[in-house]
Design brief:
The protein has one helix at about 40-45, and strands at about 10-15, 20. It is α+β, with helices and mostly antiparallel strands. It has one domain (about 5-45).
C-alpha cells in the first residue's frame, strides 16, 4: 500500500455501527480478517443494534 493516497485506500463497513472504516497500516497483514472498526464494536459483537 506504499504510495497510495488516503482517498484510494480500501474500506469496509462495520457490521455493528454500520460506519465505513478504511485500511490502516497495522492491519496490513490481516486486512482480510478485519471485521470491526474498533475494539468497542468488536466487544459488542453480540449486541447488534
Amino acid at each position: 500500500m506504499k504510495g497510495v493516497k488516503k482517498s484510494n485506500l480500501p474500506s469496509k463497513l462495520c457490521p455493528i455501527c454500520k460506519r465505513p472504516f478504511t485500511w490502516r497500516k497495522k492491519w496490513e497483514k490481516v486486512w482480510e480478517e478485519v471485521k470491526y472498526c474498533s475494539d468497542r464494536c468488536r466487544q459488542n459483537k453480540g449486541t447488534i443494534e
